[in-house]
Structure formats: C-alpha cells, structure tokens
C-alpha cells in the first residue's frame, strides 16, 4: 500500500483556520487548536491557560494528553513573571525549551512551586487580543524537540488565530448571554404588564379599598398560581388582615386575624425601606410569626397615606425557598397598580368630602343670601315709604334743600334695591341647572338683537354680526351671557353719534371663541381683572347705570360651561369682551368624527 502522505504545516494551518471559523464556544476553540498542534508536531500534551477577569492570575481552561491526575507544571496560579507562562506574556514573545532540563534550568523554582514535573521539551506561546494579554498555549514533548523556523512560525500563527477565535467565541457567548438575559427581562416585563393590565381592568369600576384589595389578591393568584396573598391595614400598633386568599392554613388565618405587631420584622422592614421586600428562605420563628413555617418565601409591599403607613400587600409560597424574577416582577406590578388605585380612591374620597362640604356651604350661603336680601328690603322699603309720606305731608311748602334730601334718600333706596337684586341674580346664576344640548348662537343672537333694538330706538346703531357656530351648552344661560355683553355694548356707546357693535366667532382646535366689540367709552386695561368681579364698576352711576353684576354672572356661567372670559380695551377707543366654549366631539354612526359644535349649516346649492 502507498505510504500515507503527511499534511504539511501550511495545510494543517489552513484546516485549523477553517475549523476555527466555525467554532462558536471557547471549548470548541480549545479542541480545534490543541488537536492539530499536537498532531502536527507529535507533542505529548497541550494546555491552554487564560488570564482571569481580575488580570492577576492564570487558570487552566483546557488540557489534552496529560494522564488523569498526572503531575504537570501548568497549573492555576498567580500571573508571575518568575514562571514561564507569566514570563512569555510579560516579554510578549514565544518561549521554546528544546532539550531536557532547559525549562528547569531557566526556572529553577518551577517544579517546587507547582508540585509538578517539567516535560523534556516545551513551547510556551502567548496569546493577545487587542493588545491585552489573553493567556498562553503550551505544548509538551516526551523527547527533546528542535523547533525550526517553520514550526515556530506555525505555532505563532496558531496562537494568534486562537486568540482571535477565542475573543470571537467569548463575544458570541456574551451576546447569547445578553440575549438570554434580555429575553428573561422581557418575559418578566410581559408578565408584569399583563398583571398590571389585568388589575387595572378589574379596578376600573370601583374606589372601595377592600374591593380593590380583593381584586389585587385575585390577580396575584391568577398570575402566579399556587401563591397565598393577603392585604393588611394598620390599626393602632397592629397590622390587621382585611383580605385573605382561601389557601392559608387555619393557624395562619387565626394569626393574621388577631393582628400582627407593627414591630414584627417582616412588616417593619418594608415600612422602613418604603419599598417591596422579598424574603427568601423564610424562617417563621426568626421572623416572629410561628405557625407560618410551611412557607418557603414571603414578600411584602407597603402603602402610605400622607407619608404614614396604612396598608400592606403580602404574598407567600409553600413550593419554593426563593422567589423567581418573574414572580417578583408580577408582585411589584400588582403592588404599584394597587398603590395607584388606592391613591385614586383617596383622592376621590377627599374630592367627594370637599364636594359635600362645598354643597353644604353653598346651601348655607344661598339661605343667607335670601335671608339678608329679605331683611335688607324691609328697611329700604320703610325708607322709601316714609320719604314719600314726608314729601306728601310737606306738599308745596317743601323747600329746595329738603326736596334735595328726600331725592337723595329715594335714589339711595333705589340703588340699594338694585344691589339686592344683583345679589339675588348672582346667587340664582350659580344654582341654575345646565340643560346641555346644541345651541345655535346665530339664531340666539338674532332674537336678542331684535329685543335690544327696541330699547335702542332713536339711536343710530350699526351691527356687524359674522357667522356664529352651533355649540354645546345650556341655551337659557348662554342667552343671559350674550344679552349681558350686548346690553353693555349698547350702554357704553350711548355717547357715540354712531354706535358700532361687532360680533364674531373664531374656530380653534379645542374650543370656540366668541367676541363682542364696541366703539364706546372703553376702559383702562390695568383694571381688566376687576370687570368680572361682583359689584365692580369702572364708571360712576350717574354716568352709566347698573349694579355691577352682569359681567360677574357672565364669568360664572361660562366657567360652569368649562370656558373662560376675556376683556380688552382702551379709554375712549371701545372695548372687546369674549368667552370660550369647549368643542365636544363624538363618534358618528358612520365611523366619521362628528362635532357637537360647528358652523351653522347652510342650504345645499
């Protein structure tokens, strides 16, 4: 038979290069490198030592050819330049020991330090990656071995390729680890989000604390399976169980029903740390809860009100001694969800309490307003009546001064009656029921204008009214708003030869804005904020009549509609008053967005 042709070193190097390209783990790289190297040079054994992450030690990563339990000088140890592996890395060059005792002569303390026996011949090849020491590749021979230039070149290239392949394999392993870790995180996030969504859906229709707690307990049980769950409330210096899942042992139920002292470690710790606490390896006696020894792991989630502890969500398992990341993520998610729901319930409770208080105060204020108005009208009526009687009794004999005094009394009484009427108007405006529906402002404007034109007969008034929208609101109160603004415009243009009143609307993304502008006497803009206050006036009553309640009513009515009022002007240049109304949208039956407020429709062409 023909003799088997031995592959050349170049052919072996080519085969190693191809095999290293497919190696995806450090172990695969070691196998690819050590086998060809030993076969190519007839080496007895091969060893790979790698630098640890700390950078101060070498660890054996792979061996081939050494007898099981055999003594070798290539062992784990410090990265020491006094030893051949450390020396090769420090010098950044390969070390070749060709003859017996060469290695021992160069490093006389080697065998004593390692407890091993040096080979007859050895090659120590340093490996570097991106300029940093990675480790060494070592080949041992049972007989003296010359390392010609071709073999040295082969070994140096092999070490270099090994370092690159090992770096790539480590990177792949790290990436796979990161992917696995991120996948685990995503699974935990998914479980947490599902628990959060499930609880949010369950808790959407209630603000009752115990109902919320029962739903939280149910979601924990549904999400985590065989897990006991409970909700506690702090009563004095004890935690009292308010909600318990039905799988607690009777002894634990009795313990929880009696109440747990607030100083108990598993309850005190989450309060002090103000976060969820997970207790693995549950020790019932050490935790001060004898009777709960069946549980292997316990968790607590504290809740606070006004900075003080008020509630506690608890969870325990009898089937494990340690919580998984998924279980912890779900518990935190349900705890956060319950905390938000409890905050919302508390806020709604406070709002309801405030609403009841305000209603009571408003009722008292209304009663007071009517009582005061009634009580004030009596002396005013007396003053008016007796002034009239006095004027009649004096007859023609009344002198000019006395007549003037009587006129002042009567005018003051009339002014007082006007103020009383204003108080009642403001009170009624605040209490009117709003019957919301579509309101055609353009049609409403036309009706109000006709009424006011009768009162302005004999005056030259130019009206400029633009298109007005259909809005959502209470028609009766919006009529009061427009009437008040237009009446003011007529009143304060009384001194103008030609009064000009403009009315228009602006369409905005979320609201309608309606404006009334006149060319009347105007006002100083620094007093604009006072205009909408009750009994606030910027002109004397002998110039322009009124009690100063019309604009106050306008502000209250528009505020109840969810809008705002505005005013701008300059002395002698007129004034502009405006108000906004929200645009409410709803879904039409054909799937298109329909507006409940829009431009007044016109006839089709």
Automatic annotation (TrEMBL):
Signal peptide: none annotated. The keyword Nucleotide-binding does not apply. Pfam families: GAF_2, HATPase_c, HisKA. InterPro entries: BphY/WalK/GraS-like (IPR050351), GAF (IPR003018), GAF-like_dom_sf (IPR029016), HATPase_C_sf (IPR036890), HATPase_dom (IPR003594), His_kinase_dom (IPR005467), HisK_dim/P_dom (IPR003661), HisK_dim/P_sf (IPR036097). Residues 341-371 form a coiled coil. It comes from the Bacteria. Residues 586-605 are annotated as: Disordered. It catalyses: ATP + protein L-histidine = ADP + protein N-phospho-L-histidine. Its EC number is 2.7.13.3. It is an enzyme of class 2 (transferase). One of its GO terms (molecular function) is phosphorelay sensor kinase activity. GO terms for biological process: osmosensory signaling via phosphorelay pathway. Gene3D superfamilies: 1.10.287.130, 3.30.450.40, Histidine kinase-like ATPase, C-terminal domain. Keywords: Coiled coil, Kinase, Phosphoprotein, Transferase. CDD domains: HisKA (cd00082). This is histidine kinase. It comes from Deinococcus terrestris.
């Amino acid at each position: 038979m023909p003799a088997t042709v031995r592959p050349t070193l170049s052919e072996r190097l080519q085969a190693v290069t191809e095999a290293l390209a497919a190696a995806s783990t450090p172990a695969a790289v070691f196998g690819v490198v050590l086998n060809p190297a030993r076969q190519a040079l007839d080496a007895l054994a091969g060893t790979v030592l790698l630098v640890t992450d700390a950078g101060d030690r070498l660890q054996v990563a792979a061996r081939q050819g050494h007898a099981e339990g055999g003594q070798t000088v290539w062992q784990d140890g410090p990265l020491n330049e006094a030893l051949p592996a450390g020396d090769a890395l420090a010098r950044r060059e390969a070390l070749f020991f060709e003859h017996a005792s060469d290695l021992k002569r160069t490093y006389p303390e080697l065998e004593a330090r390692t407890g091993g026996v040096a080979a007859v011949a050895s090659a120590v090849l340093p490996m570097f990656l991106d300029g940093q020491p990675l480790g060494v590749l070592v080949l041992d021979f049972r007989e003296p071995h010359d390392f010609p230039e071709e073999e040295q070149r082969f070994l140096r290239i092999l070490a270099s390729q090994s370092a690159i392949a090992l770096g790539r394999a480590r990177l792949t392993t790290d990436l796979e680890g990161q992917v696995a870790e991120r996948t685990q995180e995503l699974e935990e996030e998914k479980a947490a989000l599902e628990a959060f969504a499930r609880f949010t859906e369950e808790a959407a229709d209630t603000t009752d604390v115990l109902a919320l707690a029962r739903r939280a307990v149910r979601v924990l049980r549904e999400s985590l399976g065989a897990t006991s769950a409970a909700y506690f409330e702090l009563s004095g210096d004890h935690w009292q169980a308010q909600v318990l899942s039905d799988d607690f042992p009777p002894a634990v139920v009795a313990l929880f029903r009696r109440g747990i002292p607030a100083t108990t470690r598993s309850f005190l710790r989450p309060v002090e740390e103000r976060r969820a606490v997970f207790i693995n390896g549950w020790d019932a006696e050490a935790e001060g809860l004898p009777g709960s020894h069946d549980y292997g792991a316990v968790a607590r989630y504290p809740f606070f009100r006004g900075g003080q502890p008020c509630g506690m969500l608890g969870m325990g398992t009898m089937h494990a001694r340690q919580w998984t990341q998924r279980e912890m993520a779900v518990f935190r998610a349900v705890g956060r969800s319950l905390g938000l729901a409890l905050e919302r319930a508390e806020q709604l409770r406070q709002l309801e309490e405030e609403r009841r208080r305000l209603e009571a105060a408003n009722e008292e204020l209304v009663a007071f307003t009517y009582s005061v108005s009634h009580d004030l009208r009596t002396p005013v009526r007396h003053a008016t009546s007796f002034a009239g009687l006095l004027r009649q009794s004096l007859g023609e004999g009344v002198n000019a001064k006395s007549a003037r005094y009587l006129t002042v009394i009567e005018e003051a009484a009339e002014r007082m009656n006007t103020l009383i009427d204003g108080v009642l108007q403001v009170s009624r405006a605040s209490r009117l029921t709003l019957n919301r529906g579509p309101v055609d402002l353009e049609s409403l404007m036309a009706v109000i204008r006709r009424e006011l034109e009768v009162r302005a007969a004999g005056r030259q008034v130019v009206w400029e009214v633009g298109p007005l929208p259909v809005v959502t609101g209470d028609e009766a109160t919006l009529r009061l708003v427009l009437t008040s603004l237009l009446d003011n415009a007529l009143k304060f243009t009384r001194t103008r030869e030609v009064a000009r009143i403009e009315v228009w609307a602006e369409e905005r993304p979320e609201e309608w804005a309606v404006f009334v502008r006149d060319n009347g006497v105007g006002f100083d803009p620094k007093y604009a904020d006072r205009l909408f206050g009750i009994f606030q006036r910027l002109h004397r009553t002998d110039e322009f009549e009124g009690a100063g309640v019309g604009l106050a009513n306008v502000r209250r009515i528009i505020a109840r509609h969810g809008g705002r009022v505005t005013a701008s002007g300059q002395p002698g240049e007129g004034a502009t008053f405006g108000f906004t109304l929200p645009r409410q949208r709803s879904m039409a039956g054909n799937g298109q967005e329909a507006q409940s407020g829009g431009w007044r429709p016109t006839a089709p062409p």
